[in-house]
Amino acid sequence: MIQVENLEYAYPKAAVPTIKGVNFHVADGEIFGFLGPSGAGKSTLQNILTGMLKGYRGNVYIGNQELRAIQEDFYEEIGVAFEFPNFYSRFTVLENLRFFGGLYNRKTEDPYKLLKMVGLEQHANTRFSNLSKGMKMRLNFCRALLHDPALIFLDEPTSGLEPSK
Ligand SMILES: Nc1ncnc2c1ncn2[C@@H]1O[C@H](COP(=O)(O)OP(=O)(O)O)[C@@H](O)[C@H]1O
Ligand SMILES: [Mg+2]
């Protein structure tokens, strides 16, 4: 599913690369996690793997496609949850999920089904700005699953959540 070969990435103007000598392989159906102290480069790596940071050295294959060759439709196939849940603060939970679901070409999941899965169904009509941090993180997770993607990237998905979740 994912093949990373000799990956190296330096932010513009950075003296040293943030990512260097990274090699790994993730098989279909595998759950693969990065552990490391803050500043280690986990988010940077996710941003490369999701096609947002370009200009890396080495190769990244998602499926059989090198990331440099991806088109817009790549985003129909992957789900991404960013570290910080960014939503429209004056929209409700449901309005946000409907809005983001509308950006996909393919049929999306019933928002209520996803909200139920994370215990947010009672808050469908709550404004995003009135959610707690953990509730925002749960909504962030729902958004990543809206289009039933084959591959999911989650940055610090347990942040703000209690162990039982
Ligand atoms: N947009 C950016 N521009 C320049 N440097 C950055 C940027 N984002 C992150 N960095 C640097 O890259 C390094 C790795 O950051 P990051 O990938 O966010 O780490 P992690 O997610 O593991 O905490 C840090 O030294 C950070 O300062
Ligand atoms: Mg990070």
TrEMBL record:
Database matches in PROSITE patterns: ABC_TRANSPORTER_1, ABC_TRANSPORTER_2
ABC transporter domain span: 2-164
Membrane-spanning intervals of the chain: none
Keyword Transmembrane in annotation: no
One Pfam family recorded for the sequence: ABC_tran
Keywords, in A-Z order: ATP-binding, Nucleotide-binding, Transport
InterPro entries: ABC_transporter-like_ATP-bd (IPR003439), ABC_transporter-like_CS (IPR017871), ABC_transporter_ATP-binding (IPR050763), P-loop_NTPase (IPR027417)
Domain of life of the source: Bacteria
PANTHER family per UniProt: ABC TRANSPORTER ATP-BINDING PROTEIN, ABC TRANSPORTER, ATP-BINDING PROTEIN
The protein's name in its UniProt record: ABC-type multidrug transport system ATPase subunit
Upper taxonomic lineage: Bacteria, Bacillati, Bacillota, Bacilli, Bacillales
